[in-house]
Amino acid sequence: MKLKQTNNPLTPSMVDDLRLAASKMTGAERRSFQAEMCLKYCGGSARQTEIVFGWGRKNVQLGLHEKRTGIVCLGLQSVNSGCKKWEERYPIVAQSLKEIAEAHAQQNPHLITPLPIQD
């Protein structure tokens, strides 16, 4: 189903420029921009925005909801990024394991082995 085009003052060049601007943004910033353009040029219709700009309707709807409520949604990428290494979470255990490994990995400084060499 295709909605009829409203009195849209945008030229194809302007639409391309707005698409480019949105592509340079990420996350909540992009959704906020898309919601602003939706309200300004498409009468607040996410479907119309999808047709005019080619942006995902669900992203535009989420941007509109964020704008209405003032609550910014976080994606899993931003929530789960920056996970600490195991060694940082358990420094005492990591140090103990390091000491055990070093005790068993000590090499003879002259590289002379007490084992007989077989020819």
In short:
The chain is mostly helical and 119 residues long. It has helices at 12-23, 27-41, 46-53, 57-69, 76-80, 86-89, 91-104. The chain has a domain at 27-73.
Polypeptide structure, described:
This protein is mainly alpha-helical. The protein has a domain at 27-73. Helices cover 60% and strands 0% of the residues. The chain has seven helices and no strands. The protein has helices at residues 12-23, 27-41, 46-53, 57-69, 76-80, 86-89, 91-104. Helix 2 packs across helix 4 (57-69). The protein is elongated and about 90 Å long. The termini are far apart. The mean pLDDT is 84.
Give the arrangement of secondary structure elements.
Layout: H1 12-23, H2 27-41, H3 46-53, H4 57-69, H5 76-80, H6 86-89, H7 91-104
Helix pairs in contact: 2-4, 3-4
